[in-house]
Amino acid sequence: MKTTFNKVCGILIILLFFKVENNKIQKRCKLKYCYTFDENDSLKIYNSCIEELKQRESFMPKVYRCPAGYKTIGYGHRLLKGERFKKIDTTKAIEILKEDFNKALAEINNKFKDSSYKWKLAHSHASFCLGFSRVVKAVKNKDLHKHVYYRKNNCLIKAKSLVQARQFELALINNI
Fold first, then answer.
1. In a 3-state reduction of DSSP, which class is residue 171?
2. Alpha-carbon dihedral of residues 116, 144, 157, 52, nearest 10 degrees?
3. What total number of domains does the chain contain?
């Protein structure tokens, strides 16, 4: 009975928290964020970060240029020097996504050793999107929530996906 209660509370809290103008995102929230984060369920929280990244990044089997202009493949994997992917399947993309996220988590863990696991996961999630140095600077300035823009043709554009990412991270930190 307790699990059902948590799931129902999670739906109510997340829908209020993620309320956005269009119905498409509201439906996604109903499907993806139908639980609360529980301190005792570390694997569930970790997997929710991976699932959120998969949803937001979308799978691209071929190399493309991300909004920042980098060559990217799979679920937002920026090609590293020497990587020569032309096409990958979802299994390989998920494997790479987890490797990338684990690298981000290790960096955050090394820099912020005294922080809670959920805090580290939330900031690793942000690091996956923004890069480690930008997240460290945002933590210092206490302005991570402001990192919702990307630059295109010398203009700053507010990205709905980055707004959603920051909201997800805030929900994670605040035990929602």
1. helix
2. 10
3. 2
Which tokens hold the place of 100?
């990338």
The DSSP element (H or E) to which 176 belongs, if any, is: none
Q: Give yes or no for a contact between 62 and 86, defined as CB atoms under 8 angstroms apart.
A: yes
| Residue 81, in any domain of the structure | no
The CA-to-CA distance between both ends of the chain, in Å, stands at: 19
For 21-61, write each residue's pLDDT tens digit: 444 433 333 333 333 445 557 888 899 999 999 998 899 99
Q: Are 88 and 64 in contact (CB under 8 A)?
A: no
Examine the domain organization and report whether 29 and 94 are in the same domain. Answer: no
Structural domain contains residue 22: yes
Task: Give the gyration radius of the chain's Cα atoms.
Answer: 16
* 67: in domain: no
The reply to whether 95 and 162 lie within a common domain is: yes
Global confidence as pTM: 0.72
Among 64, 48, 68, residue whose Cα is nearest residue 56: 48
Expressed as residue numbers, the domain containing 161 is 37-57+89-173
All residues at 6 or more sequence positions from 130 whose CB lies less than 8 Å from its CB, including other chains: 138, 147
In a shared domain, residues 48 and 130: yes
